[in-house]
Amino acid sequence: MGTRRYVLGKVAQALLTLAFVMVFNFFLFRVIPGDPAALLLRGTTAFNPENVAQIQEELGLNEPLLGQFVTYVENTLTLTFGQSFFLRGQDVAEVISGRIWPTLLLVGTSTIASAAIGLIIGIYGGWKHGGKFDVGSQGFTLFVYAMPEFWFGILVLMAFAGGVGPFPALFPAGGYETPGADLTGWEHVSDVLNHLALPWFVLTVAYLGEYALIMRNSLIDVMNDDFVMTARAKGVREKQILWRHVVPNAMLPTFTLVLLSLGFIFGGAITIEYVFSYPGLGLLTVQAIDSKDFPLLQGLFLLFSAAVIIANLVADITYSYLDPRVRAG
Amino acid sequence: MRPPEALPTFEGGPPTGGELEPTPPEVPKSARAILWTRRRLSAKRIWRTYRKSRLGMAGLVVLIFFIAVAIFAPLLAPEEGLEATCPCNGVPFSPPSAEFPLGTDNFGRSVLTLTIWGSRISLTVGLLATAISMLIGSLIGIVAGYRGGATESVLMRFTDWFLVIPFLPLAIVLASILGRSLLVIIFVIGVTSWPGTARIVRAQVLSVKTRPYVERSRALGASGWHLNTRHILPNVGPLIFANTILTVAIAILSESTLAFLGLGDPLSISWGTILDFAFSAGAASAGQWWWLVPPGLAIVFVVLGFTMCGFALDEILNPKLRER
């Protein structure tokens, strides 16, 4: 199969998946038991039949299902996603776009950091597998895997933002920057970084293990390949074998994992952003849950899914260039 | 995640002479009896290999401990201790003391009691959600693998779609639409965590389907039902089992996450809801570690236990890993 056909096939598949998610997303929010308008107003003082009727009108819930679907598709394709329940008068797209940057900064940088550190741990662990370092890092990986990330976040928050015993609080407890401080230039940068430090650390540690594990296992696989034995027989130095022969080949699966995890950049830190009240998309999701803001949740869900689909596509295509064998398969 | 010392040495092939039951030749055995003998022997063989895995045995001990705690919860701590108005409660927010070994929460309830009773809900949700997930995953995997053709393409495309939808956002959306109850949480975790199983099962069915004994049976005129229940399922079963154990760990983690985000059933106490209440009540900023650490540690140990058992079993039962 030619490269062009392979790539086009993958793009078509991704578009189909996106279409599925779009349709799925529409019906997901139409299976709400009961009336969304009533659900929205329940427990508030504005809960009376007139208000419910008015909201039904505003949300277009009186239209036939097909009409609602057309409106939904229009809203999605124009990337406005309709109006938020919670922040009346604002388009979902506006609400979301205001929150993208903090999340990108937090999850993007921590993904890169954990991939880099995880790779190194995996390489050393796998090269001397069975050694002390390997057993230690495996135990660590297993432990981190079993730990709910939000719980780890809470512990870190308690230790470094609340202060433990004689140690003072080292970092701010949450947020993106000091509110109302109005800093500029370097002071602003250092303020933002100061707020970023704790959630960044938690995310980096939480994701480390996965990279270390994949790298280690694929390194061990490659170490048993014939070309490594050939290199040994030729008398290539061990260091050369590791860095020139084994690591480049073992990088493939890890590289794919890094690309795939870029898909989780938007939706990957929901609980951590909540713990550190970091004003990104994750915290927005929690706020949308609390205020039953279904259009907002719908928009967020579509964004999170689309990111994963696109990351998958990019990973597939990149992988086919790095390893031409898959194109033939 | 397999420390090398845990690598089990699996001897493939038929059991050696010593392991076979001594069968007196004059008693003819029914086919069923032979089948059961064979199954018992293979279970014995798996157990013997499993016992050698330090990782697996450690996991098993941890699991037995927590399951015992969940079963004997009424003996370990009185149920009234869960009531906010119980006269047995102490001073709210008090740190660990002789009377309350793990301190108290905002109602003065003993955190130890909450954690002990929390194990019931957390384990139940984990197990039931896994049962749903396994049912859907195995069914789709077996039907796709066995039927092949168009059925397979449709089912697998469907599976791929579910695989791409990010799990946590989907679970959050479903749980917030359907409301806060224990059944919803079980259902949500169950219907969002099956795609991985479906793929593993399908791959195994594809490999079993082409084995000579299945072809022989088909040539003899066996029905699809017979082939599936007698030949394919028994061969795919062990793999599904190993996968189930690993899925329970994920389900328990998911439950705690959903509960922490305020989507759990507020009336039933799981480790996740304890953490949700504690965090919402400001336990982190007040430094009330005794309220936050025990339920979290319980989650860590149970998940570790299931994962370790799952890995050890997978090592024995998964043909792909066994070859290595």
Short account of what is shown:
The complex is a heterodimer of chains A (329) and B (324). Chain A is an all-alpha fold and 329 residues long. Chain A has 14 helices and no strands.
Question: Can you lay out the helices and strands and say which pair or pack?
Answer:
The complex is a heterodimer of chains A (329) and B (324).
Chain A: H1 3-28, H2 36-41, H3 49-59, H4 65-77, H5 92-127, H6 132-146, H7 149-161, H8 185-223, H9 226-234, H10 238-262, H11 270-275, H12 281-290, H13 294-322, H14 325-328
Helix pairs in contact in A: 1-13, 5-6, 5-8, 5-10, 5-13, 6-8, 7-8, 8-10, 9-10, 10-13, 12-13
Chain B: H1 31-52, H2 54-71, H3 73-76, H4 111-147, H5 149-164, H6 167-178, H7 182-192, H8 195-209, H9 212-219, H10 224-260, H11 271-280, H12 289-317, H13 319-322
Explain what this protein looks like in three dimensions.
Chain A is 74% helix and 0% strand. Chain A is built from 14 helices and no strands. The longest helix of chain A has 39 residues, at 185-223. Chain A is globular, with a radius of gyration of 24 Å. Chain B is mainly α. Chains A and B meet through helix 1, helix 6, helix 7, helix 11 and helix 12 of A and helix 5, helix 6, helix 10 and helix 12 of B.
Order of helices and strands of chain B: HHHHHHHHHHHHH
Major beta sheet summary of chain A: none
- How large is the share of residues in beta strands of chain B? under 5%
**Quaternary status:** heterodimer
Essential attributes:
heterodimer; A: mainly alpha; about 75% helix; about 0% strand; globular; B: 13 helices; elongated; disordered N terminus
